[in-house]
Write a structure and sequence with these properties.
- The complex is a heterodimer of chains A (242) and B (404).
- Chain A contains 8 helices and 10 strands.
- Chain A is of the alpha/beta class and 242 residues long.
- Chain A has a single domain, classed as Rossmann fold, CATH 3.40.50.300.
- In chain A, the strands form 2 sheets. A 6-stranded mixed beta sheet of chain A has the order 6-7-8-3-9-10, sandwiched between helices. In chain A, strands 2-1-4-5 form a 4-stranded antiparallel beta sheet, covered by helices on one side.
- The longest helix of chain A has 16 residues.
- Chain A starts with a strand and ends in an 8-residue tail after the last helix.
- By secondary structure, chain B is of the alpha+beta class.
- Helix content of chain B is 58%, strand content 17%.
- Classes of the chains: A alpha/beta (242), B alpha+beta (404).
- Chains A and B meet through α2 of A and α1, α12, α13 and α16 of B.
- The complex binds adenosine-5'-triphosphate and magnesium ion (MG).
- The site of adenosine-5'-triphosphate (ATP) has 13 residues of chain A, from β1, β2 and α1.
- The site of adenosine-5'-triphosphate has 13 residues of chain A, from β1, β2 and α1.
Chain lengths: 242, 404
């Protein structure tokens, strides 16, 4: 079976008024099924750029990206949208729930863009909400009535509801206090133990502890744990958790 | 994305913006109201005119042909078969006889008519009933007078005369009914109607048809019918082309209606101008609101795209929103226009010089103008909603998600 994610020699260059920004430089990365990968790096190192690419929201300037063995660069916009609807789950730092809609409606949102039959939607949303252990009494609450931790769990349920190949989380604990953050991380850990593939971005080394594997990114380049340790040993001021 | 999802999204979006939405659709409301008020008033004026002329005058066709032989009731039947665009054709024959009762007498136009004559001509009964199929079949000695004749015989046109008898050509006829005085268009010194068969057997001894009239089906184009009728008559009676001009006669009330229409055209122009301007302003208002909407919801759009919405899903969502806005505006406009037109009836009556003498104009709205108004609303929704919707659908998901 092909790895869930296979990135080979990817570059991403932004053109801006100030000139070219090389956000990703020759990045190669493989994520296997059921793996919990953590990507760490300081601010501006290219984490979100990488994540957007993995999530098919952005395309590499050069290099190839295979999602479940499919070369994403061969797909058109609608096929990419379909991929996002069916195979990818997103969790954002700022939750990005529809504030006026109920929890259930928020969780069901990706299903309206997938081929999931209307009759199955509620059952799948409930299953996803159970998986993030949100108490039943909140299902009909509007999402802006929830606490941050509850919101992020709803967001994780939303990412889960399509049974995606991989859940991509960009600093999911960034807006939470440490206790709630920990609860959210435990949720991810448990989902991984149940067989989900997770890629999580953070610059908090404590967060990285829950992952199976951590890669570091600096100035758009990926480093293994060992390379990172060597770097820090040489110059402790360059730690990534600034 | 399924239709029900689209509808749900639209309903929630509009619901959360109720106040602003209502203000925005005001232009559409006024425009559509103007369109509807205009058509309702024109319809009302037309109907009131038709009321004055007789209910079916607009659909009435007078037709006749001189083929060089006697035209008979068999010809009438054959023609009726040939021209299904008529609800019915009827025939009459004209004679002149002295009509008298115990005290008075006068020279009347006596018409032998088929029972369908009343329906086709639109004659209204003041008393009693018109000649029936049974009267025709049996050749009954019955007569229907018009109010002029009643006046001649009894002094008072409103005298109760049903059941009394009059003498025509030495026969005694029972009065079945009295028709209302015919309008000025059909002035006469006194007409009496007897069954066609009675007239042929008892009075004239002649079965020939002197005149034919047809009632076209509702909604038919009178001009087309007149042309077709002319052709059918020429064909049926084998009339040569150079004779056609003189030997065939087809006349509709279209000319009267045409005249009315030209008067209305100026009124229509005024209202159309008002409607177009407010619809244009309304449409721009809709576009402005939709653009604001898109800007306010950039993050939501980014999120939806990240969750798998295709560009077309986003386009549809925003397009449907503007269509619904316009549709609601259109529906409110239809209601406002319809009820508003009642307030304007007095004005219209003055302008067109109809509806006097207790014959008030009642605004008449037909399904066609409602459908048209609805269509216009939807059209505006599409026209002015398309640009904002496309703009929303083209937003880059990454940038939108981080839009502050
Ligand atoms: N749309 C863009 N246009 C130009 N440059 C960009 C754009 N997006 C990102 N960059 C640049 O690319 C580099 C990587 O940005 P990215 O957002 O991936 O960093 P990050 O690791 O996610 O940082 P943070 O931890 O602060 O979120 C930065 O130098 C940034 O300025
Ligand atoms: Mg980032």
């Amino acid at each position: 079976m092909a790895p869930v994610i296979e990135v080979r020699g990817v570059h991403r260059v932004y053109e801006s008024a100030a000139g070219y920004v090389h956000a990703l430089k020759n990045v190669s990365l493989t994520v296997e099924h059921g793996e919990f990968l953590c990507i760490m790096g300081p601010s501006g190192s290219g984490k979100s750029t990488l994540m957007n690419m993995l999530g098919c929201l952005d395309t590499p300037t050069s290099g190839t990206y295979l999602l479940e063995g499919v070369d994403v660069s061969t797909l058109n916009d609608d096929e990419l949208a379909e991929l996002r609807a069916m195979r990818l789950g997103f969790v954002f730092q700022s939750f990005n729930l529809l504030p006026r809609a109920t929890v259930m409606r928020n969780v069901m949102l990706p299903l309206i863009y997938s081929d999931c039959p209307v009759s199955e939607r509620e059952a799948r949303a409930v299953k996803a909400l159970q998986a993030v252990s949100l108490p039943v009494e909140y299902y009909d609450h509007r999402s802006n009535e929830l606490s941050g931790g509850q919101m992020q769990r709803v967001a994780i349920a939303r990412a889960l509801v399509n049974d995606p190949a991989v859940i991509l989380a960009d600093e999911p604990t960034g807006n939470l206090d440490s206790a709630t953050g920990e609860m959210v991380l435990k949720t991810f850990r448990r989902l991984c133990d149940e067989g989900k593939t997770i890629v999580l971005i953070t610059h908090d080394p404590d967060v990285a502890n829950v992952a199976d594997r951590t890669v570091h990114i600096r100035d758009g380049k990926l480093l293994t744990d060992e390379q990172e340790r060597a770097l820090i040993a040489a110059d402790p001021t360059t730690r990534s958790n600034t | 994305m399924r239709v029900r999802d689209l509808v749900y999204e639209t309903a929630t979006a509009l619901d959360s913006n109720r106040g602003r939405s209502l203000l925005t659709i005001l232009g559409i409301v006024i425009g559509i109201a103007a369109v509807i008020a205009m058509t309702a008033l024109i319809g009302g004026v037309k109907q009131s005119l038709v009321g004055e002329l007789g209910l079916n005058q607009a659909r009435l066709v007078q037709l006749y042909a001189w083929p060089g032989r006697t035209v008979t009731l068999d010809d009438l039947e054959a023609l009726e078969e040939l021209m299904p665009e008529y609800e019915c054709l009827t025939a009459s024959s004209f004679w002149s006889f002295e009509v008298k009762n115990e005290t008075k007498k006068f020279d009347a136009s006596v018409m032998g008519v088929l029972p369908s004559y009343q329906k086709v001509s639109g004659l209204k009964m003041a008393q009693g009933t018109f000649i029936t199929d049974e009267n025709e079949d049996k050749g009954d000695l019955v007569v229907v007078l018009d109010q002029n004749s009643v006046k001649q015989l009894y002094g008072d046109p409103n005298e109760e005369v049903v059941g009394k008898t009059v003498m025509i050509n030495n026969g005694s006829y029972t009065i079945k009914g009295v028709t209302e005085a015919t309008s000025a268009l059909m002035a006469s010194g006194g007409t009496v109607y007897v069954p066609y068969s009675t007239c042929a057997t008892r009075l004239s001894g002649y079965w020939g048809v002197d005149d034919m009239m047809g009632l076209a089906r509702e909604g038919a184009n009178m001009e087309t019918i007149a042309d077709k009728t002319r052709d059918t008559l020429i064909d049926y009676f084998n009339i040569s082309d150079d004779n056609a001009e003189d030997a065939v006669y087809v006349y509709t009330m279209q000319s009267v209606i045409d005249e009315l229409n030209s008067t209305m055209a100026s009124f229509e122009l005024l209202m159309t101008a008002v409607a177009s301007i407010s619809l244009l302003v309304g449409g721009i208002g809709i576009m402005n609101m939709m653009l604001t909407n898109v800007t306010e919801r950039i993050r939501e759009i980014g999120l939806r795209k990240a969750l798998g919405a295709r560009s077309s899903d986003i386009t549809m969502q925003f397009l449907l929103e503007s269509i619904c806005l316009c549709l609601v505006g259109g529906i409110i406009g239809i209601l406002v226009g319809y009820f508003g037109s009642f307030a304007l009836t007095g004005l219209a009556g003055g302008v067109f010089d109809v509806g006097g003498e207790g014959n008030t104009i009642v605004p008449a709205i037909d399904m066609k103008s409602v459908v048209m108004a609805t269509g216009i609303s939807v059209g505006i929704g599409v026209l002015f909603g398309y640009y904002p919707a496309r703009r929303a659908s083209k937003l880059d998901p990454v940038e939108s998600l981080h839009y502050q």
